[in-house]
């Protein structure tokens, strides 16, 4: 409901506690009022927005009313809206409330913004605009409205706003700083988790203490008997609304002593009962009108005569006189408190509520989602037409990124289904959403039980998909989940919908990839081929990539890149997650970082545990390859907390693996090894054979880090027992391909290493991504000699942008430097090894940094010179000094190191005094002299630097 408070002369009707004490006299709220003044006047540069958090009845609405009074006193325009439980599933219902008075200004917006608002708010037709476009349109409209008169937007009960409106208003609230727009809102802090969005100034309102409660009661009820006052203070527990309202039911003349006052109900129930008693005295016609307003929630039902009738004004006057509502000059309506609205609905009989919902569904301005819910609430029994509408609304809610609304709509659609088979399918659909997106496994189990009870065809695909998801996520029962799904997909005589097939094939791909064996890959690929014409492009790419990334076609990669590009505006978390898993197999997660972060944040707010955990798993993989290993461990820890709390055991192993892999790269050997045995013990009985391969990958990396190449070779070959085979290469085989080559070379298995590289070439893994192109060329460098090896290493370094894959780049630089040292190209060797050391130090990859320092020592550079001490050169200064000593100009050095010539000059300016020289000509001798210093690495032979080979 919404109302725009007009700027009129004289006293205005105030709601709640404001009426009792006046703008500056809200008992116990002086600090809150000071903060509100600071926001409205922008005196403290608070960004123009403020959110008040507090329990029901604590006085949040009273402070909003006080803020509206203050705004009007400052000559500002006010807009109001309030969230409502009854329309929380209707997208943009709250935004409709707030912006309704500004409809005449739509025409002054640019066409895109005008169209976006009209479609979103139900005034026009067309494709649903992006959330970003709607948000910028709403902001533009408010700024336009404030052009001639500053404006304050007041939003009560944000916790009941629909998610779409809450997102848009949060977007606006973070961007009104420095404008003529202010935003004030309240959030109830009991019940559901707080819908906090973004950084907005906030204040949690406390309950009044006993002395403040006494002062409020004395101000409002000076004649109240002391024993009644004490009892009210005790029972109200500092809740201002209870303090104001309870005296009406505990009058002193009715309860002459303390002993005669009855035991009261808990606070919320007691207040609801009191509101109901007040509303019940109204005439039936007035109650009917209030019920329409409460269920509609927009405050604008008066404009539709077919809904309200000719006597609306009379009944509104009665309700306003009874202090139940407030009506402004635009005939917009605000209930004085959300509990009043709740009481109106609770007081109505079921048939009255159904009649009101039917009337509202017939209103011409009702959008399809709102109309579907009104028709559902108006239904007395099963209704296939309404069930179909709600099923469609469920799909739309999922596309809008509102999975909880999707599950609610699909479940209600099932309730309304007259046909048992349809009802079972819809219950199974709700179960699938709950499993794949929400992560509410308890609800999944109950929904499936209900679906099976109704379903004569136990093997229906919808039920099978949900059942397989439950088996997979709750206990990782790979074999049973696979059997259930393949049986349903092959069942004769069934005609599943395309949506059901898509869901089943997706779950089957997850099962097959967890098993990782040909026995499941082949049936999966056969079923993909059977339903190929009904599958979207994304699932076809998934089937091509997940079974063997090395064989992915360039066309599939181009299509995937196009699909990734569309995710910047995608709202459906499931779609982002599905594309993310395909991208992970072919090194494209870096392009999904922002969408995945959005899923993590939005899904955490909506309680979609499965989406949150999937996003965290993919963010683990992305941050590892990007070298942000602290992020990897942080994402893994949060994911583990969620997965273990909600029973998602199938996610736990990957999160442990991600944390262990980052630990191995950091050189934290014990932390890397800690979870691995438990992962093996968990996975083998479940035939989740991909898990041991991840264990072997961690152990391979850890062994290379500590220089144990024999162990590294043994562990890597467990992933690829027959080496690298072009026809059967899985993702993990490719991920350890470079490790396998390095371990083979280091252990004298040169011929095996050449065979591995030959297999990588035949598979043409370079086509997959720049990372694998870099690693393939690096592997070729490892097995080559002389100039050919240098050419391969140079090609490897040129294959990928320098900002991508830093750990792999550092390893190749180190290998290149080692090769150059063996070739006695000492200066060039130092350059490559120093560059590798710079990367490893930044990543905190301790084992590899130590190897780089040892290699630099072998070139004659002291350990002191490889650090960043006050007396020595930094690694970058050493690089620049070495290149300058070789005769390169500042410009040439800058081009090689991607620095400006001015930056190179600045570094040399610092280098000269450190080396005790005054000119460039002294660089070569000064660098050579470093080898004679006393702090040369212990045991390192001293040899003069040379540019020779």
UniProtKB/TrEMBL annotation:
It holds the Pfam family AAA_16. Gene3D superfamilies: Tetratricopeptide repeat domain (1.25.40.10), Winged helix-like DNA-binding domain superfamily/Winged helix DNA-binding domain (1.10.10.10). Residues 866-931 form the HTH luxR-type domain. SUPFAM superfamilies: C-terminal effector domain of the bipartite response regulators (SSF46894), P-loop containing nucleoside triphosphate hydrolases (SSF52540). Keywords: ATP-binding, Nucleotide-binding. It comes from the Bacteria. InterPro entries: AAA_16, P-loop_NTPase, Sig_transdc_resp-reg_C-effctor, TPR-like_helical_dom_sf, Tscrpt_reg_LuxR_C, WH-like_DNA-bd_sf. PANTHER family: TESTICULAR SOLUBLE ADENYLYL CYCLASE, TRANSCRIPTIONAL ACTIVATOR DOMAIN. This is AAA family ATPase.
